[in-house]
Amino acid sequence: MCQALEELMADELEAMRSEGEKNGRQDFAKLSRILLQQNRQKDLLRALEDEQYLEQYLEQYLEQLFQEHHI
Fold first, then answer.
1. Given pLDDT bands bounded at 50, 70 and 90, which one contains residue 67?
2. Contact (CB, 8 A) for 64 and 31
3. 68: CB partners within 8 A, 6+ apart
4. Closest CA to 27 of 40, 66, 43, 4
5. Total domain count for the chain?
6. Which has the closest alpha carbon to 57: 17, 22, 29?
7. Which domain of life is it from (predicted)?
8. Distance (Å, whole) CA 71 – CA 69
9. Which pLDDT score, from 0 to 100, does residue 46 have?
């Protein structure tokens, strides 16, 4: 019984990880589109090269989206 539960939990964790990766790719695609529409190619290139810079932009983007849809 424990093995079945472990397998179920492992499957659920894998599904959650996969969904998180999918959401991350979608967020990055949206951010990329916004930066390109604003002619901010240099910012996009830097975000591709600098993970901390990318995280900063994603946080700003997600915060902006949250405020637009929950206020």
1. confident
2. no
3. none
4. 66
5. 1
6. 29
7. Bacteria
8. 6
9. 95
> 1 falls in which pLDDT band (50, 70, 90)?
low
| Model confidence pLDDT, tens digit, residues 5-46 | 888 888 888 888 889 889 888 888 888 988 899 899 999 999
SS (H, E, C) the chain: CHHHHHHHHHHHHHHHHHHHHHHHHHHHHHHHHHHHHCCCHHHHHHHHHCHHHHHHHHHHHHHHHHHHHHC
Domain-located, residue 53: yes
Q: What is the mean pLDDT of residues 45-57?
A: 92
Rounded Cα distance between 37 and 66, Å, is: 20
Could you tell me the residue range of the domain that residue 52 belongs to?
40-71
Q: What is the dihedral of CA 61, 66, 68, 70, to 10 degrees?
A: 180
